[in-house]
């Protein structure tokens, strides 16, 4: 499974994802925006990394923010550009965004970073493009959920494996590299961001495995140090 396939899979899965997300992702959408709305984003420059069709940025824009989006899927960016002025959106990888140093006040991301194999390269880019005191809020598939999704036996928590997430009542399967907590709470992250809020949420809307109760995603609100 090459890295490019993982980053490009939403080109062909765009329609199923957008439809499924609107129907089943209500819990994560609600919590994501509750986190963002806890502080004043009026006039702030906000980047959504892995913005998909831009629907989250539409909500953020209504709060008065100046919004930007990046996504590796040209199809997704095409959808987002229907909602916004086109120059605010770029088709690029998380790790190679076109923005100057210290450009953003807030970086957000939902259901996207777990698609990348290397989380540290994303953090380095977020550190580069954010200003001092910037906020960084992201929501990702929970490592425990990805551990349950592993199929190689015996399951090895530490070994990265491409896992399949069966989403939205089985209507969509996406492939993602598994991750550990120490990748997310890494020295790079902890040395540059202070965690202000954190939650692990069970969300049966996204995926159910064997009827087990487990956290489907976690969300972090952090401030740049
Ligand atoms: C599950 S979708 C989430 C979209 C949106 N954030 C939402 O919550 O509806 C993941 C998005 O991340 C994008 N993505 C995946 N890998 C990426 C990468 N390496 N760089 C930039 N975007 C990527 C995908 O194209 C897709 O649009």
Characterise this structure.
By secondary structure, the protein is of the alpha/beta class. The chain has one domain: Rossmann fold (3-Layer(aba) Sandwich), CATH 3.40.50. It contains 8 helices and 9 strands. The chain has helices at residues 3-24, 26-36, 55-62, 74-83, 119-129, 143-149, 181-184, 187-192; strands at 45-49, 66-71, 89-91, 104-110, 130-141, 162-167, 172-177, 193-201, 217-224. The strands form 2 sheets. Strands 3-2-1-4-5-9-8 form a 7-stranded mixed sheet. The longest helix is centred in the first third of the chain and has 22 residues, at 3-24. The chain is globular and about 50 Å long. The relative contact order is 0.17. It binds S-adenosylmethionine. S-adenosylmethionine (SAM) binds next to helix 1.
Summary?
This protein is an alpha/beta fold.
Largest sheet: 7 strands, mixed
Ligand species = S-adenosylmethionine
Q: Which oligomeric state applies?
A: single chain
Strand order of the largest sheet: 3-2-1-4-5-9-8
Question: What class do helices, strands and sheet pairing give?
Answer: alpha/beta
Helix content: 25-40%
CATH architectural arrangement: 3-Layer(aba) Sandwich
Put simply, the count of helices is 8
Give the overall silhouette: globular
* Regions with little confidence, pLDDT below 50 for 5+ residues: none
Number of domains: 1
